[in-house]
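Risk register update: the risk of archive-format incompatibility is retired. Evidence:
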Amino acid sequence: MKMKTDISKILKQGHDYYFAEPPKYEEAKDCFTKVVEIAPNWIEGYHWLASTLEQLNLPGDAVSAYRKAIQCDQKDPRPKIALGVLLSNLGHMKEAIAELERGVELKPHYAEADARLFLADAYEKANQLEKAKEQWRFVEGMDPCYPSRDRPMKDARQKLSKYDNAPANQAMHQQQ
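Archived output:
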């Protein structure tokens, strides 16, 4: 039991560094690295290590850490969604969409609207606008909830408005 307490303390210390003002990502990385060394099958260490590596602009290492987090717990949507967002930012759209779809399929217990927006954004980047619109419509109909409240619904409406009005706007500009 003492070992678990020690791991939790190290994880908390890593969080303290990660969320410090200003953040101390190198120190956070050291803490999260210790956590994964002590508990190599615990998702939390890898998930936070990956996020920290992302902040340190080490995307290749972050991808590896997210993949290890996924191996630790196939049913946790967080690392799948985070990996999908990172891959999307890196321009690896096919892989990004696959990870984001898997994350959304797991029905995140909170932040589902945000996860669906990430998926819609990936579809948009991959020029799969009908799939993106499906996600935006779904989000638009959701009830506000933690952590983003109604921001995802507003963002979804804005995107739908942009694309639903695009042909009309283009036609107006062509007539002028």
